């Protein structure tokens, strides 16, 4: 009987491990608790999605949620004058850009948290310095309230500690988010750690393979 229980637990563990290793979770709350759901599961149709937005990129183009609908994309938050975590994070994200440079299905969105200073010309210059492909990787500026609300309420960029903060409280985070074709959060990574970008690249490929 004891051995039967052990065998059963082994099978259940293997099934659970297979599910979590071959699919990515969803993140519905700012504490980034992972949830694995399939189309037949209760709650699948209520998975958190990124809310509509309208911002401006380094080319002066209006970028909305419609431009990334049907695309897998990576999102993060930075500011051009940042001298601490941002340069390292953007350099690491360049690895992601290079990995998918010929893949039109993948986009990258970096939102300025100091949009009053990060004008279109400033972001265009920043893109050139950091070897950013202006047609794949968009540096976004716009209304500060809109960006901060999007960051904290939609992307949970500041974790649960920042979810209820106001726009008067500065947003500074190393979090990088992976968003699927349906606007759902599928991964969160520390952008200052190069190995995390390797995981991100692998997870993008996993999403592509699954059609998510």
UniProtKB/TrEMBL annotation:
Keyword Amino-acid biosynthesis annotated: no
Name used for this protein in its record: SCO family protein
UniProt xrefs under Pfam families: SCO1-SenC (PF02630)
Signal peptide: 1-20
Keywords: Copper, Signal
Organism from which the protein derives: Mucilaginibacter boryungensis
Residue stretches making up the Thioredoxin domain: 44-209
UniProt xrefs under Gene3D superfamilies: Glutaredoxin
Coiled-coil intervals: none
Organism domain of life: Bacteria
